[in-house]
């Protein structure tokens, strides 16, 4: 069953806490059009656990996924702040600037920053 690329949520992250995240490129198999998604959860011990959950969901919709890298997000919903930092040992560092731009489209009233800091 084919899904529309635009109908896939751009961001799915935990509402609070510090957790691992990945930047995922999704596109129709063989297609040129793509969309980058941010996925993050404290339930993931490793970054690949997030990808292993996202990939089958996207395949069911007729999309291919590629992990562009990872890091961590510190999400403080009370203060409406997010900090993107760190890297994934397995996938490498995501382009945090791209991640922040995607997050800002969803969390428009947040202060969102990024750094190459490991902690």
Provide a descriptive summary of the structure in words.
With 119 residues, this protein is of the alpha/beta class. It contains 2 helices and 6 strands, in the order βββαββαβ. A 6-stranded mixed β-sheet has the order 1-3-2-4-5-6. The longest helix is centred in the middle third of the chain and has 14 residues. It is globular, with a radius of gyration of 14 Å. Its EC number is 3.9.1.3. Belongs to the janus family. It comes from Chelydra serpentina (Snapping turtle).
Structural class: alpha/beta
Count every helix, treating DSSP H or I runs of 4 or more residues as helices.
2
H/E series, N to C? Answer: EEEHEEHE
* Cα-atom radius of gyration: 14 Å
Distance from N terminus to C terminus (CA atoms, Å) equals 41 Å
Strand order of the largest sheet: 1-3-2-4-5-6
Low-pLDDT runs of 5+ residues are none
**Overall 3D shape:** globular
- Percent strand: 35-45%
Question: Residue share in helices?
Answer: 10-25%
For the sheet with most strands, the description reads: 6 strands, mixed
Q: Averaged pLDDT, please?
A: 95
Number of strands: 6
Pfam family, one: Ocnus
Catalytic activity: N(tele)-phospho-L-histidyl-[protein] + H2O = L-histidyl-[protein] + phosphate; N(pros)-phospho-L-histidyl-[protein] + H2O = L-histidyl-[protein] + phosphate
EC number: 3.9.1.3
Family: Belongs to the janus family.
Layout of helices and strands, plus pairs?
Elements: E1 11-13, E2 17-28, E3 34-41, H1 47-60, E4 63-76, E5 81-85, H2 96-106, E6 111-114
Parallel strand pairs: 1-3, 5-6
Antiparallel strand pairs: 2-3, 2-4, 4-5
Function: Exhibits phosphohistidine phosphatase activity.
EC number: 3.9.1.3
InterPro entries: Janus, Janus_sf
């Amino acid at each position: 069953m084919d899904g529309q690329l635009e109908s896939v949520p751009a961001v799915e992250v935990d509402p609070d806490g510090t957790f691992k995240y990945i930047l995922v490129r999704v596109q129709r198999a063989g297609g040129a059009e793509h969309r980058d998604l941010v996925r993050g959860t404290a339930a993931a011990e490793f970054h690949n656990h997030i990808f292993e959950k996202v990939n089958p969901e996207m395949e069911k919709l007729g999309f291919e996924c590629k992990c562009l890298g990872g890091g961590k997000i510190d999400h403080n919903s009370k203060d409406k702040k997010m900090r993107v930092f760190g890297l994934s040992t397995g996938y490498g560092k995501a382009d945090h600037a791209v991640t922040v731009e995607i997050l800002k489209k969803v969390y428009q009233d947040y202060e969102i920053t990024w750094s190459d800091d490991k902690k």
